[in-house]
Amino acid sequence: MTIALIILHAGPDVEKSRADTAIRLAGAMLADNKDVRLFLAGQGVQFLQHTNTTNDSTRALLGELLELGLEVQCCGSSLKAQAMETLPAGVSKSSMNGLSGWISTADEVVCF
Predict the structure, then answer these.
(1) pTM
(2) What three-state secondary structure class fits 41?
(3) CA separation for the pair 52, 19 (Å, rounded)
(4) Is the pLDDT of residue 1 over 50?
(5) Which residues of 96-110 are buried (b: 16+ CB within 10 A; e: fewer)?
(6) What DSSP state is assigned to residue 111?
(7) Is the separation of the CB atoms in 7 and 100 below 8 Å?
(8) Could you tell me if 110 and 21 are in contact, meaning their C-beta atoms sit under 8 angstroms apart?
(9) Residue 30: which H helix or E strand, with range?
């Protein structure tokens, strides 16, 4: 099975089009029977916050993709910078070392 890695560092409110595209692409890749991994860094970790914004549909899609098997890891330093301590089910804290390992095993890497 093809392993696809999407790295998202654009936030949901600042750079809407890139962030929305990354999440939708993850769904399309899952539909193509790829093993999809999403690494959130920088402002990208804000997708894990439950806030009422115009991007609630993107956050909802991320939740659906988690239920369908999307594997999500987050940069620990980015979580700390955003003062985020609680992660939703299916999401784990990681590091640049973890990202490096994911890059090494991925067949496809896309950055947003």
Answers:
(1) 0.90
(2) coil
(3) 16
(4) yes
(5) eebbeebeeebeeee
(6) E
(7) no
(8) no
(9) helix 16-31
- Using CA atoms, how far apart are residues 73 and 52, in angstroms rounded to an integer? 23
Render pLDDT for 21-71 as a digit per residue (tens, 0 to 9): 999 999 999 999 999 999 999 988 987 876 555 457 887 888 899 999 999
Query: Tokens standing for 19?
Result: 């962030």
Q: What amino acid is encoded at 105 in this protein?
A: T
Dihedral (Cα; 56, 5, 99, 11), 10-degree rounding: -30
Q: Does 100 or 58 have the greater pLDDT score?
A: 100
Q: Are 41 and 8 contacting, i.e. CB atoms less than 8 angstroms apart?
A: yes
Residue 79's Cβ-side half-sphere holds a number of Cα atoms within 13 Å equal to 18
Tens digit of pLDDT for each residue in 74-94?
999 999 999 998 998 889 999
> To which residue do tokens 């994911």 refer?
102
Judge contact between 31 and 69, C-beta under 8 A.
no
